[in-house]
Amino acid sequence: MASLQTTLLILGASGDLSKRLLLPGLATLLEVKEDWDVQLVGAGVEDLSDAEWKHLVHEAFENAQASKNEEDEGATGETELAPRLQAVIDASSYRKADVTDAGDLTNLLADCRHDPAVYFALPPAVTEKSCEQLAHLDLPARTRLALEKPFGTDAASAEHLNDLLHSFLPEERIHRVDHFLGRSTVLNLLGLRFANRIIEPLLSSQHVARVDIVYDETLGLEGRARYYDKAGALVDMIQSHLLQVMAVVAMEAPASIDADDLRTQKELVLRAVRPWGGDAVSASKRARYTAGSVGDRPMPSYADEDGVDPSLETETLAQLTLEVANWRWAGVPFTLRSGKALGKQRREILVTFKDSPHVPNGLSGAVLPDRLCIWIAPDEMQLELNVNGPGDPYTIDHTALSTTFNPGRLSAYGEVLAGVLEGDATLSVRGDSAVQGWKVVEPFLTAWRDGDVPLDEYAAGSGGPDGWDNIDA
């Protein structure tokens, strides 16, 4: 008998998120969880025939398989999938539906053979309307909901959405998805910090000068103007993802890696976060890209991208400096930065340690700060140290010790779906933390809306605006 029997019901199954991320993630999950019985049901506004739906799923599964095997890159046409994956496709179904209509939702739930995990691959406003209808339906006993971030549009709307969801489901069956921190990345960070006595004692204001968390992308808008032009880099990446990364980096040791213990420690960090120096104006920067080239790819100015309203002054690069005002971290600046159309892709956590209090006379050379560098996807670590060089023993050189973390067997969305389907909320953001994330960024959003922080510019393909430190790699 299967160790888990469940139905994955995807609302918005014909959309980009489903095709590009969810369905390939499901394929990687099914290959690992061979004894799981997962029924796939899709719903969307498009009128797809049964054959068209199965072809769509087959292509998504095929893409997941190709990305795992380098020899498959560039292959075209359908390839033979593993029998298990093909069986899931053959048993799957699709229904054209209005997911904000109680009758259509009732019919979709009736199509589910097992207790469903309902995944909202939909815009936030549509997701909320759908949940308003679900609140009045008789749901199966173990129904779980998975909602993409951003969760709400501010603290008040996030609290309202929490109240709506809690009116018909307990918190442990609500998954506010954050794919950015896959299970393997979280566990790698926890293992590095708490499974040894070398790194952890150094991670405090006594030894750390600054912490930088950078997520720079070479991609531009990529047709996402409808969403991105109203969100911008601050909401899209920092509020939604990088605050969660910071919470894992800064939190105290949890008693266990269970969802309750882990999420409680992250929430305590978020409650302690303040703008650096108490001033959201001086502690933040924003910019947007102008025309340029990323590699050999020309890119228009953001203001000229299709669907963009230049008068909104949406930023494509955001940088905040924060303080975790608690005993461990008070006085250490945490800088979070994320942007698009930059010259180099960077997914980094950089911990810069304070200078040595005294270098004995007689030793020479460039004494640089010791630094712990952690890269996300692929997950790697490098510890940069000052040591006596291989030549003159009186000369200090800078060297690096490197290692590669376990990458895990699942894609980021495979990790997310694993948690949702088996009811493990470890990778999900708890309701109070979703609200607190908005409270952290609201002083900055207010200052930006009031025009107190200038909108700088940087050429697409550059390292960022002139005059910014741009955080040394």
UniProtKB/TrEMBL annotation:
Oxidoreductase listed as a keyword: yes
EC number, as in UniProt: 1.1.1.49
Broad enzyme group: oxidoreductase
UniProtKB keywords: Oxidoreductase
Stated name of the protein: Glucose-6-phosphate dehydrogenase
Source organism (scientific name): Curtobacterium aetherium
Classification of source organism: Bacteria, Bacillati, Actinomycetota, Actinomycetes, Micrococcales
